[in-house]
């Protein structure tokens, strides 16, 4: 089947491009066009990402003329907080409203080793995974790179209140990141840039459901970030029932692209495997999974699924989760069970948006 057609990035409007969408080199090029010295890019990035200003007028070491040029050319993306949920374990889930009224989710997770932010890349999703609340209502639009960056910045502002730092970012929120590839890459480069948010490559993780052509492209980028695949099934038959994307790019083709990624980058991959009661969680499924990934440089992350009201899947019993893990360990697979967070709030991806914005997710 053909590669999924690219969607419109941003609806036609008078909204200016987000300054957060500019990579450092892009900003240098723009300054050169304006007859300004390149070093101004460092000053602007400092105002945006270290001082986290919300208007160009606050950039006091820039000339008034340059500030006006910036204001006439770009916008500093702001996200309106619609809902902020705080879990007993410290997890914070935001429902943000965008400039056009659409809403997205962002999650801040607290760990012993630091604070992690899970960002969204699309308003909704068109891939139709049968267990996911994010696909309810389909895809509305892609996010601009700056709208993804803004999620990290808003999360950092929340961390500023307690004098803490966002130390890692996971691209696992609403949407398929590789279905918005051209905005994803500038986002990754900006948050990684030493003059930007300076989040180390090894502290950034991107997850895909298996858009195979983009896996090859991403491998050729040779970015040293962490890469995860939402696998969720050991056979192409089961996976096609759970994830329609598997009908476009079957499991065999997905595994070929993953091997190419590993050979090209030298990095291992993480397989995300959600356990769904009676569907893919039996010991024979674990044996089939071990066969599938044999010889692949990887780690398996088992995920006890969150209950989603609009979906029919049930949670795998605790003892069955451990039995599944034991089979994999006995087969020499590097495996862990994901620690649950935000269990007392709308933890499942897209669940808060589905509850609060029913008109978007019908």
- Overall mean pLDDT stands at 90
CATH homology-level superfamily of the largest domain = Aldolase class I
Please work out how many helical segments DSSP would assign: 12
The CATH architecture of the largest domain can be given as Alpha-Beta Barrel
- Name the poorly predicted regions: 1-13
In percent terms, what proportion of residues is strand?
Answer: 15-25%
Molecular shape? globular
Helix proportion? 25-40%
Q: Order of strands side by side in the largest beta sheet?
A: 3-4-5-6-9-10-11-12-13-14
Distance between the termini: 28 Å
CATH class of the largest domain: Alpha Beta
Query: Within the CATH hierarchy, at the fold level, what is the topology of the largest domain?
Result: TIM Barrel
Radius of gyration: 21 Å
Number of domains: 2
Query: What is the chain-wise order of helices and strands?
Result: EHHHEEEEEEEHEHEHEHHHEHEHEH
Major beta-sheet overview: 10 strands, mixed
Helix/strand structural class = alpha/beta
TL;DR?
Specifically methylates position 2 of adenine 2503 in 23S rRNA and position 2 of adenine 37 in tRNAs. The protein has 362 residues and is α/β, with parallel strands linked by helices. It is 35% helix and 20% strand.
